[in-house]
Structures are given as C-alpha cells and as structure tokens.
Design brief:
This protein is mainly beta. 0% of the residues lie in helices and 54% in strands. Strand 11 and strand 12 form a beta hairpin.
Amino acid sequence: MKIVFSLLFPLMHLVGNAQNDPELFPVNDKKVGYLGYYLEDMTNVVAPQFCSATYSVDGYYIVSKGEHEYYENGRRKEEHIPNTEKFGLLNSKGQFIIDFKNDYDGIYVSKGIIYIIKNNLYGTVNEQNEIVIPIEYEELNIEDKNVIIAKKNSKYGVLNSLGETIIPFEFEDLNVDEDKIKAVKNKIEYYYTLNGTFIKSKNGNNTKKLK
C-alpha cells in the first residue's frame, strides 16, 4: 500500500469535506520524529504519532505505525521492522474510525467506501468500523457505491455497497462498459444494467435479449 509521506507543510488553501470539517494536513514533528495532523494555521488536532499519513481521501485520513530499529546515536531508522507496520483510519475530525488494534494489512478509501485487506482478502467497513462486506474476496473494484466488482473462488460477480449480490459469482471476466455491465462466461457475453437486471447475451453473431 502506497502512503504519502508529508515532511513539509503544503501551501494549500482550506478545503471543506462532505461534513464541512476543515481539511487536516500531515506534518512531521522533528522533535518526536512522527507525523501528526494540523489545521492550515498550524493548530495541532492529532498529536504526532504516525510513521506515515495521507492527505484527505474523500474526507478520511489513512495512517500507519510500525516498529523501528535505531542507530547507535539514537536516531531512528526510517524503514519499519518487517511485518510490524499497522494501518489505521481517521475521520474528517481526526478521530479514529479504525485503530491499530484491528491489525489490517491495508486500508483504502475509494468513492467514499472504506475497504480493508487482511490475509490477502478484501472487504469493507462502515464509519463505525462494522464489517459490511465480509473479508473474503480476492479482489474488490469499486466502480461506484452501487457497483462493486468482486472476485471470489476465481469467479467474478457484482455487489452493492450493502454487500448484496446483484450479479452472481459465475463469470470469468466482468467490467463496466459505459452504462452497462459486461460479463463473460464460456466465451458468451452477458449484459446487465448497473443495478443487475439482465439485458441480453451474445455468442458470436447470435444475440438473445431479455423477453
């Protein structure tokens, strides 16, 4: 997972997120050697404690913390000790949604949806850190809040943001094609609306439409 490191305060204007909270900025406190979050006027909101921290991602902030080795002069080495990095997520106010005790391997935000990785499997959580989509999918591709292309047992299907299956997991390939979803199974193309209603199937030059 690629995390943005911020060592200098960015020359950016204040931007409100969906909750109208002022944007927070990651700043490195050289006295303690960790990143914290500050307002544009340098008011500290979240105490320096992170090894890495992102700028706002849809109003959320992804952070990490890990164990380090130290040089003889007491200076901390930049790289984490392998397998010690843990990830967390803050809301727009700088409060933890996901703390480091969850032990996730990665946390991402896409189109307002929080998705997590553990043991190379994907799932999603809500703002209360409650599991919405179980952590059991090999892939999650969030097209929008109601179209989440997922892979399970090597087959593709589509979920909505509530974790409900709108297209079954039986396809070898699946993607959004303009305003339709195209799925492929045994060289036959199947077309669905974005809410999962079947439109037609196509095999070579033969097309079968929904009656």
